[in-house]
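Fold these two proteins, one after the other.
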Amino acid sequence: MTEFAEWDSFYLIVGGAAGALIGLQFVVMTLIAGRPERPDYIVGATFATPTIVHFGTVLLVAALIRAPWPGVTSIGVLLILVGLIAVGYTLIVTRLIRAQDTYEPVFEDWLFHCILPAGAYIVLAVSAFELLYHSREALFGIGFSELLLLFVGIHNAWDTVTYNVFTGIPGVKTQPEEIVNRSKQSEDSAPPQYDKD
């Protein structure tokens, strides 16, 4: 299992990043919870919870890969299960996105909350199966799926934060042109500045 040893640094970095981002996501959600207007529970379960699941999966896979397994079969079977369970979870998230009526999802939401995570989990499951036969090549597929999940999670966390910051604040519109028009109006209505000379 010398191939696994070559990936130690990669999984140390990726797993550490996932763990740190989980903690950061909790801090952000705690700050958002203090707002007077909070989004519905279903929106959080639909858009915020999957981000934690993606980061948690990256952390779990990094821990499983770095564990001292006696052979490839055990880790391969576990990773196949993780991938398949996560694909099922992504299908549940897709159903939740369709069921909620608080927010109208756009293509970017479908891409980052459904398509890319499902693809990453499928790659994880297929690569884990391939791990049983061609471990060196399969580790690249597993590594790719982990990086994809990490970047999807970063995107979704940022998207959640910006959405929660700019919605529900009295007087702030979420459409960019309305924000621009509002700032121009405030500049026009500002009192003129006179020189004291």
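Now the second one:
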Amino acid sequence: MRQTIMFAAVLLLCGGAPLGAQQRPSAPANETPEFALWPADRVKEAADRLEKNIGDKSILFETLGNWKGHSVYLVLRAKTADAEFHKTEEDVYIGLRGKATFVIGGEMVDPKDMPRKQVRAGSIRGGTKRDLSAGDIVHVPRAIPHQLVIAPGERFLYWLFKIDEEPLANLDPHTLKPKNPSEKRNQSEK
């Protein structure tokens, strides 16, 4: 069932321009409350805004939705991410713009336990490297080390679907640190 839902989401999201929006729109009274739609024009706006505002930051993203067990993010990376290992979560990446190298498997170097059953490290020793660009789709099974490597001067814009995600509580999904209450909910930076 989960695979069917993910396939439908991938088909929906890959059907047009890159998707995104600042806030999850509320559903009309006659629709299911959990239904969400991000029109292509708002998605392009969000993607362009992230590109414009990245500056020298490592990452900018917009949270498109957090539901019980899964979340959707529009993410722009300008620098290499920490290596990650999720004990209970799976990830699906859909490339929208730019290039990156995805490292999967291998051994995390100096891993540190994080909240929400995650482990992070600065790098991975070994592992398989795959070049990514717009249109590529990556599924990361739970409990597998992985890392997104960004070459100097490159950027990579992608959808990130987190499946079986541990509750976020008041944590920033990328830093796993408490959110600042004065910070805008839907856009964070690292």
